[in-house]
Amino acid sequence: MDIEKLKTSRKREQDLEQLSPFELKDSLISLASDQQKKPVKTMLNAGRGNPNWTASIPREAFFTLGQFGIEECRLAMDKSSGLSGIPQKKDIAKRFEDFLGKNKQAPGIELLRGLYNYGKEKHGFDPDSWIFELAEGIIGDQYPSPVRMLKQTEIVVHDYLVQEMCGNHPIRSGKFDLFAVEGGTAAMCYIFDSLMENNLLKKGDKIALGVPVFTPYIEIPELARYDFKVVYIHGSAKDENGNSTFQYPEEELDKLGDKSIKAFFIVNPSNPTSVEICDYCRKYLVKVVKNLNPNLMILTDDVYGTFVPNFNSLMNELPQNTLCVYSFSKYFGATGWRLGVIALYEDNIYDDMLSAIPEKDKQKVSKLYESLTLHPEKLKFIDRLVADSRQVALNHTAGLSTPQQVQMLLFAIFALLDKENKYKNDCMKLLHNRYQLLWDGISMPIVPDIERAAYYCEIDIYEWGMKTHGKDFIAFLEKNFEPVDIVFRLAEKSSIVLLNGGGFAGPEWSVRVSLANLDDEDYTAIGKALGETMQEYVDAWESTKKG
User: Fold this and answer.
1) What is the mean pLDDT of residues 278-293?
2) What is the DSSP string of 327-389?
């Protein structure tokens, strides 16, 4: 067999492929770093989803607003030692208007002006209350109040979520309660824990998971504290030409009609496959839930929803059932800010089910929150989430830090005021260009897909091999290589780090390429290395036939 041997033995590959892709990545980086020491080698790590762009205008506005906040503090008290006061509410709006007038050339000033006017004109905010919230928030001199989210900030971020998550058909009545959290990661942890604390999920319960999916969603249910029985809902659909679309076939969605399944967890658009649920699948899912399992709790992680036009979340289609997690990290290049929200519709099944649990359990659960209210049994689930995030006893100091909430607000208003979608269009164009460069490098045509977000690219070696070379080639691959062999081969030979798709409960022979974190030309190089490596397998197979 004419193919170069790797430092990593097949036995070692078998051992390592049991790890999470994000842990396996460390071994790949080590191999790629060794290769990088050779002349003219640069490591290309496309294993991470951290974007290499930032939204600059809302950040400019943040720092300019900070200057206003400092001025307000010094108005109250200004010692030569640097000891200053805190913002004062009386006439603060007038002082802010003066600040806007005196600083017309300051970075981000027009966004601040737009934010001020938006609050007054669209929502009728009292000007002094509005600017006082911004000044206190940017300075961070107070605990968050309300603890769930700053009052006026929540209203504006709510507008943003409806714009970005509800497509062309936002719900006509009612609203969502928002809980500002430390990114999507914190949201996941809080939700799992509160569902357990409130007996909405119990250890050993059956849940469903849409796969392929972000690895922690696979790993968390297996923890001893949860030990959930997991039913996989496979995104295994193919088009008429046999290409994977990663949509959910009817027979997979039909599984959700089983009332013993208490919850369904999904990432939409998906990670690692980076496609949104198509309109047909979404409508079919709605029908299954409403007709067969109306109390199904749905957690949808929609962090990538902003990368497809007119995205329509399950929070819009099934608002009563859905807890939506949204993070600002990817779209605005803000992973270090740790900004996210949990959204729950006011009229929801979670509160209904809390009212319906057996009296014995209800008393036990209510006791958890009796230090917060005289009527703990009436406490809404979203507020229980907040309390649980601080072990209840520290609820009075709960909440996302106020400067973080202000940056979140500025990201939201930036998108709300961008009526021509310039930023969104540039983001989508950037990713789809990199997608094109990757496939040009492989020398393969792109299969069109209107649901594609293109934040990641999933390449299935098995599917490619079966279509281009048939069953004999696939049998050769399976006999001689581990499914993760290609990621080790790319790391050792080309200093390229990709993640194995099997670790996401995706196709075992697939790889995930992040299109977010490298320069455009790097994706041509990655595509070329992928194409050459795939051809090496073919050449090795051909050599066995000649023998």
Assistant:
1) 97
2) ESTTTTT-GGG--EEEEEESS-HHHHHHHHS-HHHHHHHHHHTTTT-S-GGG--HHHHHHHHT
Structure tokens at 38: 């050779």
Q: Are strands 499-500 and 340-345 parallel, antiparallel or unpaired?
A: unpaired
> Is residue 327 a contact partner of residue 295, using CB atoms and an 8 Å limit?
no
Per-residue pLDDT, 7 = 75
| Residue 231 burial by Cβ neighbours in a 10 Å radius (0-12, 13-18, 19+) | middle
Dihedral of CA 363/369/371/376: which sign? negative
Give the mean pLDDT of 416-425: 97
> Which SS3 state, helix, strand or coil, does residue 503 take?
helix
Separation between Cα atoms, residue 109 and residue 113, nearest integer Å: 6
Q: Are 157 and 407 in contact (CB under 8 A)?
A: no
Residue 40: what pLDDT? Answer: 42
* Residue 166 DSSP code: B
DSSP-assigned letters across all residues of 456-483: EEEEEHHHHHHHHH-HHHHHHHHHH--T
Closest CA to 538 of 465, 440, 462, 444: 465
Which SS3 state, helix, strand or coil, does residue 485 take? helix
**E strands of 68-205, at which residues?**
176-181
Between residues 284 and 12, the one the model is more confident about: 284
- Joined together, the tokens standing for residue 261 give 């399944």
What mean pLDDT comes out for the span 154-176?
A: 90
pLDDT band per the 50, 70, 90 thresholds, residue 29:
confident
Q: What contacts 421, CB < 8 A, 6 or more positions away?
A: none
pLDDT at 38 over 60: no
> Taking all residues of the chain, what is their mean pLDDT, rounded to a whole number?
93
- Residue 369 near residue 393 (C-beta atoms within 8 A): no
**Number of DSSP helices (H) and strands (E) in the chain, helices first:** 21, 12
2 pLDDT higher than 80 = no
- Give residue-wise pLDDT tens across range 248-259: 999 999 999 999
Burial environment of residue 145 by CB neighbours within 10 A (0 to 12, 13 to 18, 19 or more): middle
What are the structure tokens assigned to 176, written together? 């969502």
How many angstroms separate the CA atoms of 437 and 443, rounded?
A: 10
Give the count of beta carbons closer than 10 Å to the beta carbon of residue 264. 26
336's tokens: 């270090």
| pLDDT score of 5 | 78
Say how far residue 331 (Cα) sits from the centre of its chain.
10
Binned at pLDDT 50, 70 and 90, residue 22 comes out as: low
Cβ–Cβ < 8 Å for 150, 137: yes
**Beta-strand runs (E) in 152-196:** 176-181
Using alpha carbons, select from 153, 51, 176, 99 the residue that is nearest to residue 403.
Answer: 153
Asked if pLDDT for residue 39 goes beyond 50, the answer is: no
Q: How far is CA 404 from CA 52, 182, 187, 409, 539, in A?
A: 21, 9, 15, 9, 54
Residue written as token pair 């027009």: 110
